[in-house]
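Hi there, hope your week has been kind to you so far. No rush at all, and the record is pasted right below.
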Amino acid sequence: MSLSVGARLGQYEILAPLGAGGMGEVYRARDTKLKRDVALKVLPDAFAGNPERMARFQREAEVLASLNHPNIAHVYGVEDRALVMELVEGVEPKGPMPFDEAWKIAMQVADALEYAHERGVIHRDLKPANVKVTPDGVVKLLDFGLAKAFSAEPGESQDSPRLADSPTLTMGATVAGVILGTAAYMAPEQASGKRVDKRADIWSWGVLLYELLTGERLFEGEDAAETLAAVIQKQPDLERVPAKVRRLLGECLQKDPKLRLRDIGDAKRLLVEQEAGAPSRQSWRWILAIAVGLALISAAIVLAFVVFRAQPHDEDALNLSVALPPNSIPHFVALSPDGRRLVVSLSGVSGGLYPLFLRSMDSSEYRLLPGTDGARMPFWSPDSRFIGFFADGKLKTMPASGGPPTVLCSETGTGRGGTWNKNGIILFAPDSGKLRRVKGSGGECSTVPVEDDGVIRGPEFLPDGNRFFYNTLSGVYLGALDSPKPRKILNDRSGVLYAPPASGQRLAHLLFLRQSALMAQPFDPNKWEPVGDPFAISQQVSFSASPPQLGASLASTGMLVYVTDVRVEKQLTWLDRSGKELGKVGRPGNLLGVAISPNGNTVAFDRNDRPIPNTVWFFDITRGSEGRFASVDNPRQAPVWSPDGNRIAYGDRRTLFVRDASGGGPEEILLSAGANPRAVSDWSRDGKFLIYTENDPKTQGDIWYLPDPGKPGGKPVKFAATDAIESEGQLSPDGRWLAYLSDHGEQPDIVVRPFPAGPGLWKVSVNAGGEPRWSRDGKELFYIQGIAGKVALLAVAVKQDRGSIEFGAPEKLFEFQASLLFPTSNEFSYSPHPDGKRFLVAVQEPANPAINVITNWRKLLPASAQ
C-alpha cells in the first residue's frame, strides 16, 4: 500500500517516502499527538491481508517494543498495518575504514546484540543496511527481530518476495527447512533452513566487521542461490583483515555453531587476549580439551554421588541452583522420586498458560510438554515414569518420555493436589468436595470419605500406600484410605512433604511452610505423631501458585528442590493512559482485587500478607489512611462496590457477603454457602443485579447473577455455562451488555453478550485477553493481555446505536509488571478511575525467582532431629 505525502494513518501524517523493500515501504511521518517525527514501515499488501501473519506480527512487535537500549532503534507500536519506529537520522557504514573506526561501530552493534540476547530476542537479519551511524557517532541497529515478526507460522500461506527487490528472504522464522535473512550475511545453519539462535547473529556480526574493515563482502555470488552455497561451503578467508582481529573473526565464523563464539559479549575479551599474545587457537583447543575432560570427570563424580545414589548419608549437604529460562517464573515444581528429572510449570517462556516443562537434572535444557497449557499441581508416579496434573477441569496423566495426556477424571475444577501410591492409586483433591481416588491406569473415580472443614488440599501418600496427609483451613491431618477418621498433626495451614527415616535413623520428617520458612518437623513413623520442635531448612521458600501449597519437592535420594524469591509484592500505582506513573497508593504487599469506589475517593482491594490470611482492605485516597475492612476468620476476597458507593460485596469462596462501606455494622449474607466456590465480579449501576462466578467442577467457571441483591428470597440465575471457563463478568454502564472472559476457544478471550438475555456474541480481544472493565461512560472497554511478567492494558472503542453495538480495534495503552491469578477468582489487577484518564494498577515489584537444590538435606538438621 503506497501512501502519498499528507495522507494520514491513524495519528500519523505522512511527510516523505524513505525507501522500499521486501518488508514494505518506509515513510517519514509526523506523530500529531506527541509532536515528533517517526518512521512508518507499511506492510506489503500480501502480508497485511493475512490475518494469521498480522496476529503474529502484532505479538512480535510487542516484544520488540520492550527493548530499550541506546543502540537499538526503538519500536513504538503498531498502527493499522504499519510499524511505528524511531526515526534515525544517520548513514549506513561503508568500508574499508581504519580498524579503530570499524571497531567502534562493531562494538556498539555488539552491545545492542548482547542486550537483546539476554532478553531472548535475536536480530536474524544483521547487515550494514540495518545499521545507521548518527552524526554524533552513535550506532543504531534497525529492524531488530523484524525478520521473525514478518515470518509465517508453519503451515501458513505466503508469497515469496522477489530477491531483486530485497535480499531479505522473509519466508519463515525459526521453522526448520525454511530460509530466513539476507543471503550474504546468513549463518550456515540459517542458510540451510535450520533452527537458529543467538549464534546466528554472532556469525552475521563477524561478516559485518569483515566488510567494515575490507570494504568487500565476505560471501558473494551472482545470485542468492550461489551466495547461499558459498556461505554453506566456502571457508572464510581472513588474510585481508588486521592480524589482531583474525582470531576473533575465526571464532565468530565457525561453520558449526557449537564451535562458534557463544556470547557476543566475549568479543572484546578475545581481541584484548590476542593483542596481549594469548595462546593460539590450537593451544586453546588443547586447554579446552583438558578442561572439558576434567569437567566431565567432575560431573560424573557429582552425578554419581548426588543424583543417582539411592540414599546418600555420608556426604555433606550441597546447595545448588538450577538455571531458569530467561524471563521465566516458576509456579509449581515436582521432582521425580528417583531424583533424575524435574517437572516445572513456567510462565514467560511460551504463549501458553504456564505449561509444564521437563528438565533432566544433569542437563540445562527445558523440554515443553505438549498438551499441558494451564497445568497445575504436577506430581509423579512412584516409578518416575508418569506425571499427573490438573488442566481443563480434569485430572490427567502423561508419560514422562512423551506422548499425549490421558484424562482420568473430570469435574475436578482447578485441582488442589494429587499423590500416587505404590499400588497404582491416585488420591487427589478437586476444587470442591471430598477427596477422590482413581487407578493410575484408569477406571472409576470414587469419593474417599474423610472428615474435613469444607476445604481439602495437598494429599501426600505415606510409603505404606494407605495413610496420607492433607491440609485444610484448620491445619494438617493424617488420614487413611480404610478409615474416615483423620487425626490432626499440625496447626499450620500448609502442604506437607513426607520424608521417611534415612538408613540407620528412627525418625521421619514432615516438611511444611511456616510463613516463608521451610520447616522440618521430626515425626515418629510408629506412633504417627510429631516429636519435638521443627527446624528451619530455608527462610526464603515460595508458596506455589495456589497457596498454601509449598513450592518444594523431595526425591527418595535425599534431594530437595524448592522455589525461592517468587515474591508477590505489589504496589498500587496511578498510571495515566500512556503508562506514566502519577503516584502510589498505600503500602506494598500481596495485593489484588483492585476496585475504586464510584466517587473515586476510596479503593477496596485484597491483601494477602502472610501470616494474615487473604482479606479485604480499603484505602481512603483523600485522607491517605488504610484499614482492614472484612473479618479475618476466613479469607475474604474480590470486593465490588454498590452503585451508590455505600456498600461493598465480597465472598469467602462459598458465601457472598455485603457490608456497609464505612466498615461499621455486621456482615450480611447475600447468598448462603453453596457446594462450589464463588467470587463476586460486578454490581449493576441500577443496583438490580449482582454478577458472580461459580466454579462448578462439571463446567469449570460459570457466570451467574443474583437479582435484587440484599432482598430476601432472591434466586440466582445462570447466565453463561459451557465446558470452558466463563468468568470476570462486567456489566456495561447502561446494564445492557455483559463483557466477560471465555476460554472456549484455543485461548482465553474477552467476549460480550446482551444482558440479561438476547441473541449475539462479540469477540472483542485479539490474541487473548482477560480482566475486562468498562469506562464510566461506556465508550471504551479495557482488558489485560498476558499472564505474567510484562502484561499490557488495552482499550477498545465502543459504539452503540439503537440496540446494536460495535467494537473498534484494540489499542495498547501501556505495559506493567504483573503475575495474574486464575480467572475464576475475579481478582482484578487494575481499576479505571471514573474520570477515564488514569488507572489504579497493582504493579508487581521486580522479583528474582530461582529453583534451588539441596542434596542430602538432612545434614542441615541438628543431630537431635535426625
The domain at 8-278 is CATH 1.10.510.10 (Transferase(Phosphotransferase); domain 1).
